[in-house]
Amino acid sequence: MTGFNPTSKKPEQEIFVPKISPERPVQQHDLSEFSTFFKASQAICHQEKHKVFQLRHKVYCEELRFEPCQPSGLEQDAFDTRALHCSLAEAHSGEIAGTVRLIHCEQEQEPAPLPIEQYFAGRFTAPHLMPQCFPRQHVCEISRLAVAAKFRRRLKDATAKDLPALNSISQPFNRFIAIGLYLMATALCLEKGYYHGFVSIEPSLARILQRIGINFTLIGEIIEFNGKRAPYYLDGRQVIANLQPEYRQLMQTLSLQLLTVPEQAIITKQLNDDADVQWASA
Question: What residue ranges define each of the domains in the chain, with the CATH number in brackets?
Answer without folding.
Answer: 28-148+175-268 (3.40.630.30)
